[in-house]
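Friendly challenge for the regulars: who can give me the structure tokens for this chain first? No prize, just bragging rights.
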Amino acid sequence: MSDVPPLLVFDLDGTLAETAGDLIGTLNFVLKREGVAPLPLSQARFMLGMGARALIQRGFAAQNVPLEPAKLQQLFGDFLAHYEAHIADESFLFPGVIEALDRFEAAGWAFAVCTNKTEAPARKLLQALGVADRFRVIVGQDTFECPKPDPRVLRATIEAAGGQVARAIMVGDSRTDIDTARNLGVPVVAVDFGYTDTPVHELGPDRVISHFDALWEAVAAIAP
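First reply, four minutes later:
Bragging rights claimed.
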């Protein structure tokens, strides 16, 4: 038997944690300050998942307001500063996350996070939620200078966590996560309660779950 543990690689926003309240709250802080109408959470939730720059771009585009690249870069810095100051005001782990981690850990699995958040706020959020130490590595889009769905970031995450691609499974909530896993040839479980404008069952993951209680059976069905 290999002494390399099997590895679960989790997305963060919309997968491990419900973070829409704080992210959209920060987007609306930026929009209102720039004289742009804020967006309701129900409309903006699907904009999440590709990182803060993409969220800002989508927010301005939704209100038909042009945004120059230099201005975007300035707003990105402002967004991060405000978001990190309010990173867990409304954010929380989805039900069943802790219990799932406990069960997999007892069975010898290791864990990593691969998110399109930048690394610092991802780490800060997981610390605020009390689970940062459960993950061997926490990788953001700036950690290896390539965001998902580039398969290099998933490969680098797996290697940094001491795992092997052949013994890894991705868990995510969006096309980005599914494409990342597919691009590396890694099985993928999708949660159906995250941030996506297309229902995940239409995107071809290996399994779809509606609660973390179902993760054990889903992984058992597809584990290499």
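DSSP finds nine helices and eight strands in the chain. The chain has a mean pLDDT of 95. Your move, everyone else.
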